[in-house]
Amino acid sequence: MKILAIETSCDDTSVAVVEDGSYILSSVVSTQLEHSQYGGVVPEIAARAHIRNILPVLDEAINEAEITWKDIDAIAVTKGPGLIGSLIVGVNTTRTLALMHKKPLIAVHHTEGHIYANWLSREENEQPVFPLVCLTVSGGHTNLIYMRDHLQYEIIGETHDDAAGEAYDKVAKLLGLGYPGGLLISLLSEKGDKHKYLFPLVDLTDAPKRDSEGYLRDAEPSLDFSYSGLKTAVLREIKQLTKDGKQLDEKQKADIAASFQYTANEILARNLERALRKFKPKTVLLSGGVASNVSLRKQIIERVGEQTNFLFPEAKCCTDNAAMIGAAAYYHALKREFVDPEELTPDPNYKLT
Ligand code: KG4
Ligand code: ZN
Question: pTM surpassing 0.85?
Fold first, then answer.
């Protein structure tokens, strides 16, 4: 089954053609560079850029896949969450295409797409086995998700404030590295000492409590995340180092980046390890933009052990792309979960469960 998928939830205009939820026939991503001068995504600029880009990107994806409209079995789109102006462009384009070409239409949750990036370009015998736990880390989300089977999601851990990717971006800004910051932090970290600064390994586990007989009992380890304290600790360190009007030198910047990256990743890896102990899944998945961080993958392997069936998407499928939407859509199509093009609306606050 060939699915044409469209993803426009933030600042990447992307169209892909995916066969049977795994084989990428084409995947085109047009990243909007307009935002870098503002240090973050400007919603109004993003929406206008999607309008400019969507049809050329669509044409390119169809040409690259070497197919025509009659070869396409269904069309999929990200319904949400995301920026409303950005989502509208993808959803309305998809509705029009579905009506014009009389194709079934599938609505996909953005996080669901990130999770299903793990099914892309894998032979059937290499695909994730259920039950599984997936750590999804992007600019907007930090979630631990338990899946008993396809499309069945249970959120077992979430962030109470910033997403991990957002913390990467904010620390990059504090260091004057530019946007998007995650990749820049990881590159700079290669030159730094991750043990130079001791930042807090934030843990939301409750303090021990007394049981009914008065004995102290440990609370169950928390699977939730918090990144605002870590970001503030980095800010405090930078203020301390620059208090006499001094500038950070390159070595200090690299050490801060490396120490931050190490701590941010340890928080993720520690909670994932806790989730494995509790849920005992057959597969462990990593997904979302931050999943392309090589140190994060290493830190997870150090914690969960080489013998764990730990999978992550190839780097270009970690950050936003339409192929992952096509992969998730395939499993909705198998269940015949189609939506009426007349009724599909974008939902910036779309919930996974
Ligand atoms: O999944 P994604 O493309 O978009 C959202 O759904 O948010 O993730 C983007 C996030 C950004 O915060 C970016 O800084 C982060 O992923 N990111 C990284 C790396 N590459 C992208 N964070 C850490 N290390 C990286 N190599
Ligand atoms: Zn994303």
Answer: yes
